[in-house]
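Is this the right way to post structure tokens for a design question? Let me know if I should format differently. Anyway, here goes:
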């Protein structure tokens, strides 16, 4: 099974993915926890380019293709091999980030983004995407506070420097994706404490792991193509 965690900056995706990985491991599942950008060796170099404040002048097109390069390498080197071994893959961000950030946030053509992503990942889309939904102002404050604490304000602060209107468009983009494909993209209320959010995630996932789960679409299947065409 392949599950992606999505949301605006500061929504708590990484924390939620980590908590979910520990919980699934306690149930006896073999889990691979990864992230984008930066889930592969090449991806680490691309992450530095994409998130560093010194690259604030990067064009939207360049930004997009760097993300696609990161994702293509990530799928080939990390995600697909883990799935072939029968592991549960939990990923902090995946292709829906491009739709929300570059599509709704930057105004790029959504159909183009879907097809470029489908090409980059070879048809491998998540079985389920959990969107942690949070007010943009709250998320930005969380993210900036985290970066200050970790000393990452310059190295990983490029998106936090975007204005509130941008992050509001991104949030609305995620919400629209959830409305269009509620079977594949689920909203999770990310307000409140970490434990509250994790309980909401477990409520969504527990039926899948307690009763068994057949992936919505194996790589390259018709259902996967429908996600690209209909999202």
């Amino acid at each position: 099974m392949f599950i992606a965690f999505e949301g605006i900056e500061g929504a708590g995706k990484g924390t939620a993915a980590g908590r979910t990985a520990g919980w699934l491991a306690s149930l006896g599942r073999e889990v691979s926890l990864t992230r984008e950008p930066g889930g592969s060796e090449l991806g680490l170099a691309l992450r530095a380019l994409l998130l560093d404040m010194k690259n604030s002048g990067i064009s939207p097109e360049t930004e997009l293709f760097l993300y696609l390069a990161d994702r293509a390498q990530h799928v080939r080197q990390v995600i697909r091999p883990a799935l072939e071994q029968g592991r549960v893959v939990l990923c902090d961000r995946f292709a829906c980030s491009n739709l929300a950030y570059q599509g709704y946030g930057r105004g790029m053509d959504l159909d183009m983004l879907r097809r470029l992503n489908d090409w980059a990942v070879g048809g491998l889309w998540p079985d389920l995407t959990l969107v942690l939904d949070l007010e943009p102002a709250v998320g930005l404050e969380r993210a900036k506070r985290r970066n200050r604490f970790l000393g990452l304000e310059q190295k990983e602060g490029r998106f936090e420097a975007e204005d509130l209107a941008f992050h509001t468009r991104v949030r609305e983009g995620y919400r629209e994706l959830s409305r269009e494909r509620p079977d594949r993209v689920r909203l999770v209320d990310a307000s409140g404490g970490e434990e509250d959010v994790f309980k909401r995630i477990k409520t969504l996932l527990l039926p899948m792991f307690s009763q068994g789960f057949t992936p919505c679409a194996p790589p390259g299947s018709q259902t996967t193509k429908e996600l690209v065409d209909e999202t």
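Format looks fine. Someone answered above. Worth noting: The two ends are 20 Å apart (CA to CA). The beta strands are 2-7, 31-35, 88-92, 128-133, 185-189.
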